[in-house]
Amino acid sequence: xxxxxxETQLRPIFLAALAGDAAxxxxxxxxxxxRLRGYLRQMLARAGRTDAGETEDVLxxxxxxxxxxxxxxxxxxxxxxxxxxxxxxxxxDHLRRSGRxxxxxxxxxxxxxxAGPPEDAAADARLDLARAMETLPExxxxxxxxxxxxxxSVADAAGAVGMTETAAKVAIHxxxxxxxxxxxxxxxxx
Length: 190
Fold this sequence. Notes:
By secondary structure, the protein is mainly α. The chain has nine helices and no strands. The protein starts with a helix and ends with a helix. 21% of the residues are buried.
């Protein structure tokens, strides 16, 4: 099943789940689990990890994070991209805890593997990301780049720019919200 077909299937199910439909929520979790399991297995293998138990551990962490973060979902965004992003963060956290670096996971290859769109769509997405990043103050842009794209810890990134960890977390959160708003406005334009 293509990512587009999965999105078409999952979006209404997830929206129903957010509205309180327990059966829809179970179906969403079962369906997204299959996709995320394959993604995590592939990414762990790239990092030299082939233990199926490790894949399941990271999957369970990702599903828990999806559950706890479901209120952050923006209905204007693809639910599959939101779920994959959370799974990737959990994967990076897992690799950090186990002494492996997330830089073993190339972002370009990952993006094309997830969505599978034509190369011009991937280039458009990278351009949109760059434009959204340009709207941010330089310090916030640097924090997001360090933490979300380079895999640095919030503490390290905050120290590098002379901020407290709490202030850096707030700046990153607000920056990501501003980027999402910018991108949703661009998407809404004809």
